[in-house]
Amino acid sequence: MPWGQGRGWGRGRRRKMRIIGFIPEVRHFYPALPPVGQPKPPIFMTYEEFEALRLVDYEGLTQEEAGKRMGVSRGTIWRALSSARKKVAQMLVEGRELIILAQGNEIPKEEELSE
Fold first, then answer.
1. pTM tops 0.85, yes or no
2. Which is the most buried residue in 6, 47, 86, 89, by most CB within 10 A?
3. 35 has a pLDDT exceeding 50
4. What is the CA radius of gyration of the chain?
């Protein structure tokens, strides 16, 4: 095996910066009624997941168009969108808190990129 491969020495590639066109003002959602019994831990959603959900499900863009706006591949959008949808469903079904947090690899963009 070549040096450094498969042994966990490297830290991998750096994460590509994501262009975020909308930073949510409300970043914390919680159920109206207090939980019955022991509360479950909150669900954490990243700005990347939130932006993918906003662009595809709210704005109606294709995954390809959303990827161009965020500066990432369609596959990255698909993964972020899939994760975001699962977290929203989990929040609704289980009555859990949802907290939207930055990861540190986002670039806020005042104006979205125009084609």
1. no
2. 47
3. yes
4. 17
